[in-house]
Amino acid sequence: MPARRALVVVSALLAGLAVAVPAEAAQSWTVSGRHGLTATVSADGAEGRVSLAVNRAGRTVLAPSPVGITTEHVDLSKGLRLLRRSSGPVVEHYNTKAGKQLSRMSVMTESRFTFEGTGGARFDLVVRVSRDGVAYRYSLPRSYGAILGEASAFHVPAGSTAWLAKYRRDYENPFLKTTSDTAEPAEYMHPALFETGGTYLNITESDVDGRHSGARLVHEGGGVYRIKYWDEKVQAPGPVDTAWRTVIIGDLATVTSSTLVDDLATPSKVRDTSWIKPGKVFWSWLAGGREAGQSLAMQKTYVDYAAAHGWPYVLVDAGWYFDPNWDYDPTWETTSWIPQLVDYARARGVQVQTWVHYDELDTAEERATRLALFERWGVVGLKIDFMDSDGQDRYRWYDQILAETAKHHLMINFHGSTIPHGIQRTWPHVMTMEGVHGGEKSSGLTTSHLTALPFTRNVPGSMDYTPMAWHRPSRTTSDAHELALAVLFESGMQNFAGRVEDYQARPEAERFLDQVPAAWNETRLLAGRPGESAVLARRSGDRWFIGGGFSGEARTVDVPLGISQGRWLVDIVRDGLVRERRVLSSGEKLTLDVMKDGGFAAIACRWQPGVTTCDQPVSKVPSTTVTATPSVKTNPGKAFEIEGKFTVDSPVSKVTLLPRVPNGWTISGPAVTARELRPGQALTGKWTLTAPDTAGYFDIPVVATFREGEDEQVSRVHVWKPLPAGWSYLSDLPFTGQSGDGPIERDLANGGAAAGDGKPIAIRRTQHGKGLGTHANATIEFTLDARCTEFAATVGVDDEAGLDVARQRVGGTVTFGVSGDGRSLVDTEVLGVRTAPRNLAVDVSGVQKLTLRVNDGGDGTQNDHASWGDARVKCG
């Protein structure tokens, strides 16, 4: 509301200051802001063209650059004359939920120049100057047909150093160093960074939404970078304000900490923002790949880690609504395990976000159904992927999806998207956006690129780089430099990409990450230069978090401690992930040795005698242990027992211990309870369970619930159907043979080279409780001695192959054959991962030696996991 009141006052001031200006031969007008920034608008007398230049402290930092706009009906880039000018201040205070500074004050000088073109068509050139930049936009009072383009361009002084990234629709190209005039003629992304005489210019755009089209920069030579829309025609059926052409200007510290892009944007459209909460996320894609996206068990381990370390979120990435072949599962809305994971996570103080493809939400009907479904499930955030467009239609979709997700209290992370253009002010539940050549990439992640990002892509808004993928071979940073990215890269949802075991192998990094927040009260640049180094300090409450990253050879660095006045304990993790502590006063130098492409991370807290750490307590679930009967073998309808035990490392209260069985299973025996449980005490129970008419492997959790949280341990129950008299499962009989990759498995699929590394046998998502798991080329021989009459099995490529075939796009095709005494009894056609299983029934009367064969389907044996489900023989 304060922002709206300020705008009303400004409107009155502008009206009061309106002054008619007669046309003259050549004219210029200045708009001045604080800190020595001045924009000069000029009109030539000959052709009626208008330009804008920027001066900082008496030096030209942006040479006269054309402005103007063209529509289907009028060309407002020439033949212009000024009708009037009005000026006044624009002062706003607003708060954000994420970003480099949560509470913001914006003070700008605005001048509105009303120009008239040939035929009487008019538009306003609205220019704003602030302490940290200059911006302008066009305001059309009525429709002049579709907008075809702008004359807008930026003429950067020759020889200016430039850090540019080639344009691509998802903004995922690296930033490379060049110069303003020698840069290759090409299309470049926003933002583009230039340095001229010690002044930096970060060129981008703001307040882009469905009224308009996104744009990019085109360098055609000579250091002039013109604006090019995504769309050839931008629909403008009525009055319209275009996007702000925005240049953040100042020294590097000013550019880095600037909030100008948000300052220019439309104020928040979300009244109640209490549900919007930034935080750290255990992200599964790089930690577990495609398998993690399809595994409830793996996701539970990520929840457990987050709960143990006080991380508020997990993000389930792609795969959860695909089948084992990575094909779309049309039943996901009723069969997904996401609600189970939400319940599991909620009991541990963790909330769940999910990945979803743009095309699952690109119609009004899909959004109405699915956003409500996600809210009912208890999902708190969506990572929406693959928008891949800067077009007006896509921005209209952004307007729709953001209004609707706000209604359903779903926080948003956009991937495969544009970059922030003030969207986080207008829609504060946008926590972060990708739009970066980031941690998912397998190449190009040089430390020169990484040390450019705080000054380029991360300036306009949150950036989901996804750091901490310790295991990735594409990583070029030292461990300490990687750790520093948690501070260097601002993101309202900080999606950490590491595996559990890799965090645990780095206890000092683990400790630091448990402390670091994801939103900031203040941001300061301590030292750096794009592509060489970056050291940022970000304040959260009364602590400063410092991240330093360096590109190039090992060196000794001196970093001025430019934080709040006073004496500080600086708690450092330096290269080698070694922790050390120093007491320094603000302004003193922090001197450190850094290794090649090294860095450091630190926390600074107020020092006084006796203060030895900057760590604060982390809210997490109590440490507890559940043990359960490890495994059981049974048949449908046959009762079996499970035992469980619960112990604690710290007191808990209101405890209940009970197995949680799937629908259709029965359990007898009461829940075991305790009002309180203390270390050294144990709660134990025993229950009788019965499986329904089903087959396969089932993880039955023995669950301890208590006021402070929940814990569980699973008992794996192997269920198979008993056979009629005379029949035997081949997996229970002796055999000889060999498999193409790894051993022949009994009652499991062949997973790989190690024994027992396969999953339960499943063909087209149907589990089989018994069977043989193989890999082409394989032969299995059984001695029947003419005692048997029938062989039967359900055969096919096992679901074990699906993900690898989808990922590698090779293999997963086989043929099955059954021979008796060297004579073929049956052979199948080539079966693949999407082929329905084949039911074999073979007369084996008189056969002495039965041979089962699996052969490659003709495309090599890679990923040829083949299973003989419920393979059995009838013998007299």
TrEMBL record:
Region (Disordered): 855-876
Superkingdom of this protein's organism: Bacteria
Record-linked InterPro entries: A-galactase_NEW3 (IPR018905), Aldolase_TIM (IPR013785), Galactose-bd-like_sf (IPR008979), GH (IPR017853), GH-type_carb-bd (IPR014718), GH97_C (IPR029483), GH97_catalytic (IPR019563), GH97_N (IPR029486)
Domain Glycosyl hydrolase family 98 putative carbohydrate-binding module as annotated: residue spans: 724-875
A GO term for molecular function: carbohydrate binding
Alphabetized UniProt keyword annotations: Glycosidase, Hydrolase, Signal
Signal peptide residues on this chain, from the entry's feature table: 1-25
Protein name, UniProt field: Alpha-glucosidase
Species this protein is from: Kibdelosporangium aridum
